[in-house]
Amino acid sequence: MSGPVAPTAKSLILDLLSTLRGGTMPVSALVQAGERFGVAENSVRVALARLVAAGQVERDERGRYRLGAQSAPIDRLVTSWRRLGERLRSWDDDWIGVHSAGLPGRPSERTLRRRERALRFLGFRELAPGLAIRPDNLRGGAAAARAELQSLGLEAGALVFELRGLDPATDARARGLWDVAALCAGYRQSLAALAASEQHLQIVSEAEGMVESFLLGGRVIRQLVLDPLLPEPIVPVAERDALVAALRRYDRLGRACWTAFLERHGVLGGRTPADTRIPDGASRLAAR
Global pTM? Predict the structure, then answer.
């Protein structure tokens, strides 16, 4: 697994504002946070202006900033990592299917990107051309999946339905659509990285701790947000649960690393930035 990637000005702004639970942050805090990650002040200000124009960020009457309405669907998904268990139900070997091959007209590149993003965020994989599936173990079944997919950009005309009764060969092929070995290796690597960083955060400076917790916590949150949430017996669920538990512990340390900085800028009562890191690329996709 690759190491944490430094944020762009755009993703840094969205990540920081996603921690506020309805609160706001002054531009001075965004600029100083950018300095810790090597992001120039001008880049922060230009990105902020573009995000406001796109509706992803809003400015209040005091000149402070918060997430805008356009960021809400992805932000809800990203901040759900703590409650992964609440999103799931037992699996009875049935599937949810999404059929998009019969939609009228030729989709634009933007439409295709939004469709692919929605399917990826909910763990769907292509079983046949125009047919993507996942195990039917998400709480709320096909109806809830349909609503979430559409909020993330799937076209309203795409069919989202329960799928059952696959023949044995097709069922076996469906269960093999995900790289389970890579998923499990990722869980173990991230567990080890979190454990090592927990020790390291005890001895680093405030600035170093802010950066380390933000980047590593964000990478693991991205990993969990993009996890397909497969059931037993396709994956050993206990390994994923162990990573979630470790990230909760790490989140408390990350919050402590950021508390003094946020207090100096009058940003109180927020979550640590490592708590709600937007997945790499999600901020760009949200604007499309």
Answer: 0.86
